[in-house]
Amino acid sequence: MAEVSAEARIEAPAGKVWAQLTDFASYGQWNATHTSFPQGGPETLEAGATFAENMKLMGFPAEVNWTVEELEPERVFAIKGKGPMGVLVGNRYTLTPDGDATTVRIDGEFTGAAVSLMAGKLKDSATAALNESLRKLGGLVG
After folding, report:
1. I want to staple 126 with a disulfide (CB 3.0 to 4.6 A). Which of 4, 43, 86, 89 is the partner?
2. What's residue 113's pLDDT?
3. Can you give the CATH number for the domain in which 37 is found?
4. What does residue 30 show for φ and ψ, rounded to 5 degrees?
5. Closest by alpha carbon to 36, among 51, 48, 22?
6. Between β-strands 76-82 and 60-72, what pairing exists: parallel, antiparallel or unpaired?
């Protein structure tokens, strides 16, 4: 298993950050690993909703089929998915209001046989992508 995380303070209220985070049409503007949603984002954002995402990680394209695991508006958005070669992926976005700003934390995990072969590189690449994503997200809403 490879676990990654990143955290940033964004100078915008949680509602504004949440609106950007869950605006699937603009994902490519801030999410560093996102390339497209082949069928669009989830039709209804709720626990149990599913959607497919094309991503690029460590230079390799991958399609992940996501399921929304947990959803608490303006607080938590957690998804789990299945990628190529039996890799399971999880992402959890946690928003913590801090006055007029919001602390955003992203926790990600990758499990599966293919992960153990490249866990170190995967951690470095994914951590860099999370940090870049938070920087871009902050730029859009700040």
Report:
1. 4
2. 83
3. 3.30.530.20
4. -135, -30
5. 51
6. antiparallel
